[in-house]
């Protein structure tokens, strides 16, 4: 599929033409009945913007390689982080048809990042999951329980330190590989609880915080 270089938003928080998916996504995320579309050339984008083509509400994944819609993903991926005694950890699990098909966890190595406590683990979990998705050439839906995971990327929250800024840059560079889904932490969600446990196991601590 041809690379999408321009995005038109006809109905959203902000309307008009955008030259990157991150801004387009921020303009339509959470907007009921959003209408938007990606194009290879600016001329095609402007033609659609000014024309009378179908404006049925739709979603566009921004995936430059695989022509998937925002709901068309290969795996649901649950992510979480933990922190104890100056160290942070991460855990993630790839889920397909209600079954875990791949999982991983580990301890973060950046001592400075540990100052962000479990948030550093949350970020690490998502980045490792995206790297795995890239290696598998798949698209994923990332389930997270910390709001910043998605809000930094969409621009709803400002990335104020070098770690969150690096995270945003990484995620925007891989924007076609994922979409976000917020879940409530410790709410009885089976897989969210599982990756919480995975992260804790990496640090050798119990489930109870």
From TrEMBL:
UniProt key word Lipid metabolism: no
Gene3D superfamilies attached to this UniProt entry: Ribonuclease H-like superfamily/Ribonuclease H (3.30.420.10), Ribonuclease H1, N-terminal domain (3.40.970.10)
Example of a GO biological process term: DNA replication, removal of RNA primer
RNase H type-1 domain residues: 71-204
InterPro entries: Ribosomal_bL9/RNase_H1_N, RNase_H, RNase_H1_N, RNase_H1_N_sf, RNaseH-like_sf, RNaseH_domain, RNaseH_sf
Keywords: Endonuclease, Hydrolase, Magnesium, Metal-binding, Nuclease
Enzyme Commission number(s) from the entry: 3.1.26.4
Family, per entry: Belongs to the RNase H family.
Listed name of the protein: ribonuclease H
């Amino acid at each position: 599929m041809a690379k999408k270089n321009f995005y038109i938003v006809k109905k959203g928080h902000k309307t008009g033409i955008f030259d990157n998916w991150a801004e387009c996504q921020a303009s339509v995320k959470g907007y009921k009945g959003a209408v938007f579309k990606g194009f290879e050339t600016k001329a095609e984008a402007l033609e659609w913007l000014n024309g009378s083509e179908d404006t049925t509400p739709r979603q566009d994944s921004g995936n430059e390689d695989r022509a998937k819609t925002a709901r068309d993903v290969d795996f649901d991926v649950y992510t979480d982080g933990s922190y104890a005694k100056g160290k942070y950890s991460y855990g993630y699990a790839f889920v397909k048809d209600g079954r875990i098909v791949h999982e991983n966890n580990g301890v973060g190595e950046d001592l400075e990042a540990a100052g962000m406590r479990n948030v550093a683990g949350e970020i690490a979990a998502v980045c490792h999951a995206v790297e795995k998705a890239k290696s598998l050439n798949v698209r994923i839906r990332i389930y997270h329980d910390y709001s910043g995971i998605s809000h930094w990327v969409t621009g709803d929250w400002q990335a104020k330190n070098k770690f969150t800024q690096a995270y945003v840059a990484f995620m925007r560079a891989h924007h076609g590989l994922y979409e976000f889904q917020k879940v409530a932490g410790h709410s009885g969600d089976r897989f969210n609880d599982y990756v919480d446990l995975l992260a804790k196991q990496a640090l050798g601590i119990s489930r109870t915080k």
